[in-house]
Specification:
Shape: rod-shaped
Number of strands: 14
Oligomer: single chain
Radius of gyration: 28 Å
Order of helices and strands: EEEEEEEEEEEEEE
Structural class: mainly beta
Length: 174
């Protein structure tokens, strides 16, 4: 009996098993601590119901008369942390600002951009941004927790500061 390789997935994923097909006898999957087996006799069955982070164990048992062979597979389920990059910002004539994303707990957060501005601390959800000028700057906040990845974007709009000129003072005779 060979249950296949251990797997690591994100919470809510459907897992396809990869056990060997019995040469003689029959095989059966058994869930030891959660998860729903689609077709217990199928070596490539799907497993659903893996919504809570943790380790789930499944046993592939091949029985041929009085002979029994077993192998166990472990599926590690990681929790999904949904990234929130914060609200878009509308600014006037500035060259710096601070971003305001959610914390990557558990997991690791990372800022990225292709818009030319500098991110002060790539792994800080409240990182500063430098090098802004007039235009639109897009920043992506990505949270990775094991096999789970979530990302969200925030736009920073920088308007140019136009100097108001009212003209020269005037004296009027009535």
């Amino acid at each position: 009996s060979a249950a296949g390789p251990d797997q690591q997935v994100c919470a809510g994923s459907t897992v396809t098993m990869a056990a060997n097909t019995p040469g003689a006898g029959s095989g059966t999957w058994t869930a030891l601590n959660g998860g729903t087996i689609s077709t217990a006799s199928n070596p490539a069955t799907t497993i659903t119901g893996l919504t809570i982070a943790g380790n789930y164990n499944f046993v592939w048992t091949i029985t041929n008369g009085t002979c029994v062979s077993r192998d166990t597979i472990r599926i590690t389920v990681d929790s999904l942390v949904v990234a929130n990059a914060g609200s878009d910002q509308q600014l006037c004539g500035v060259t710096t600002t601070n971003l305001a994303a959610n914390a990557a707990t558990p997991g690791i957060g990372f800022w990225s951009t292709t818009s030319g501005a500098g991110i002060t601390t790539l792994t800080d959800e409240n990182s500063g941004v430098t090098g802004l000028n007039t235009g639109v700057f897009t920043f992506v906040w990505t949270i990775t927790n094991g096999s789970c990845v979530s990302e969200d974007t925030v736009d920073v709009f920088v308007d140019s500061l136009e100097t108001a000129v009212a003209g020269s003072d005037q004296t009027i005779c009535s």
